[in-house]
Amino acid sequence: MERISPEADQALGVLPAFLRQILYNRGCTTFDEAARFLKAEPSGNTDPIQILGMGETVERILCAIQRDELIVVYGDYDVDGVTATALLFEVLQKMGARVREYIPNRFDEGYGLNNEALETVQRSLGAKLVITVDCGIRSQKEAEYARQLGLDLIITDHHHCSDTLPCGIAVINPKQPGDPYQDKDLAGVGLAYKLAQALLATQPVAGVEADQWLDLVALGTVADLAPLVGENRALVRRGLEHIRQGQRQGLLSLIGAAGLNREKVTAADIGFALGPRLNAAGRLESALAAFRLLTATDLFEAGMLAQQLDNQNHERQQQTRDIQARVEAMALAENQDQALIFAADPGFSQGIVGLAASRLAELYYRPAIVAYRNEEITRGSCRSIPGFHITEALDQCSELLIRHGGHAAAAGFTVRNENLPELITRMQAMAAQQLGDLSQLRRTLDADLEIPLSDLNFKMLNYLDLIQPTGYGNLEPVFVSRNLEVRNHRTVGKEKQHLKLWVSDGKASINAIAFRLGHLDGQLPHFVDLMYTFERNEYNGMIDLQLNVRDLRPSGMAE
Predict the structure, then answer these.
(1) At 547, is the pLDDT very low, low, confident or very high (cuts 50, 70, 90)?
(2) What DSSP line would sit under 456-519, residue for residue?
C-alpha cells in the first residue's frame, strides 16, 4: 500500500480521504484526472478515423453497399468475436448492405481464417468482401489465398501483431507499428464499434447511432478481459446502462435465464454469468447459437436460445470439473519442478482446455498449457502470469507452429505432433529463465488502504460506485482491517466450500463472506486480519453491508 503523496492529497482535497487514496493508486494525481476517472471519460482524441486503414476500410465498405455486393463478417467463436460479429452485421444491415455472418466451428475449423471457409464464402455465397472481427492478424497465408480467390479482405483485430501483416484492403489494429490511435487496448468488439462510428459518420442513417450497440461492446470487452481503463472503461460504463434498459430481446432473455436483476447488471455479472453462457455455445457446439440469440427479435426464439445456452453452460461446468481433475493429476505427476505446466490428451475437449489452463495457472501460479491432441496435430490453449508474455514466447517458436496468436496472458496455437516435444521444451526453458526461482514465485495481493470497520457505511459504498466498472486493469478497491474478533463463523454452500463470518473491531460489527475458504472453518483463530472488498448484500429484499474476503491471517503475524 503506497501512501498518497502530499501534492496529490492536496490536489484531491475536496474528496473523502479514502477516495483520494484509491484514485491516487489508479494514477490520478490532479483533480482534473480524478474528475475524468470518476466520470469514466477517456483522455485524448477518440476519433476512429485516426486508426490506420480506417479511411480505406470505410471507402471499400460504402462502395460494396452501393454496388449491392455481398459482405461477409467473419468472426471468432468467443464472446468478443460473437458480439463484434453481431454488432457489425446489424450496423451494415441498417446501412442497407447485403451482409452475412460467418463464425468458424471450433472443432472442425479451429481459430481464425481458414482456406475452406474462404472458398465457401466466395464460391457458394458469392461474397466480394470479407471483414474479419477479432481475428485474422496472423493469417498471412489465408489472406494471400483470399487474394488469389478474388476476395477483398479487411482485417479488424486487436491481438498481438507479428512482424508481417496480412495482405488485403486494410488492417485495423491499433497495435500495428505506426498506428497513432492512443488507446491500444480496445477489444475486438471495441474495434467493430469504432468502425461503425466511422461508417455512420461518413454516411449517416436517420435514427441510427453506433452507441445503440454499446450493450454488445460492454459484453465483449468485459468477457475478453480487456483492461477496464481509458476508452474501454467509458464504453463499458455506458454499455452497462444500455443493458439495464433491456432493449435487446436476446440479452434480456439471457439475463432472465441467469437469474440476474436486469436493472442492476454489473461488469462482474458479465464476467461470471452472462459471458460464460455465451461462451458455452462455442465451447460445446457452435457459436452461431450465441450470435442468433444476440440478434434475435422474437420473444419465443430468444427464450429458447437463452435456455439452450444456460443448459450448455451447466454441461460445460461439469465437463470443466471432469477435465480439471485429470489435468491436475497429470500436472502433479509430470510438472512439479517445471516453470510451465503442460498437459495434453486426445480425450480433452477443445472447448474446455482454455478453462482448464486458467484453473492450473490460478492454482499453481505458473504458466499453463492444456491441449487437445489427435493423430496429427495438437491444439493448445495457454494461460500465463505476470512476468511471462505467452504470445511473445510462442513467437520465438513460430517456425515450429502451424498458427498461433493471443495476448500477454492468454494465447492459442496449433502444432504438428512431431514438433510438440521441442515446442514444450523451449517454452519451459523460456519460462524458467524469465520467471527465475520457482520457490520465490507467489501471487501477491495488493490493498488500496487500511481502514477501521467503523468507517464502513452506505455513503462510502455510494462513492465506491464511482470506481465502477471494475475488473481486469481496474480492480475493485481492496481494504485491510486488522485485529478483528471472529464472533461467529460457519461454512456455507452446497459443498461447504465457503466461509461465513461475523467480525468486530470492538466499535463496529459486520458480516463477511470468504469464498473458497471453507476449509479454514475448523482452524480459525479468535482474532484475524482481513483483506476484502466492501459491498452491498441483498437478500430477501433486505440490503446490508458485507465484506467480501480476499485473504485472511491470524492477527499479529509478521508481514
Answers:
(1) very high
(2) --HHHHHHHGGG-S-BTTBPPP-EEEEEEEEEEEEEESTTS-EEEEEEE-SS-EEEEEETT-GG
